[in-house]
Amino acid sequence: MSLTKDDVLTALSRIDLADGGTLTSRDMIRALAVEGGVVRFVIEAPEAAMAARMEGVRQSAEAAVRA
Q1: d(CA 45, CA 50)
Q2: How many H helices and E strands in the chain?
Q3: Inter-residue contact 16 to 22 (CB < 8 Å)
Q4: CA–CA separation, 11 vs 8, rounded Å?
Q5: Separation of CA 62 from chain center
Q6: What is the Rg, in whole angstroms, of the alpha carbon atoms belonging to the chain?
Q7: Which residues is 23 bridged to in the sheet?
Q8: How many other C-beta atoms can be found within 10 angstroms of the C-beta atom of residue 25?
Q9: Who contacts 47 (Cβ-Cβ below 8 Å, separation ≥6)?
């Protein structure tokens, strides 16, 4: 079975943010592409201060998509 964008969004919807919501509910996923089994996406934080605190979220998102 091939991985789809919907599969990736479902996985990312399980990633909770410390200040509430999820990556998908807060509309933070950009440039999502699935090609030949390779997944690419950008997590776009609304401000630089938040982006600086999101390394754990990035790691969780990558792990969720790999699973």
Answers
A1: 6
A2: 3, 2
A3: yes
A4: 5
A5: 7
A6: 12
A7: none
A8: 11
A9: none
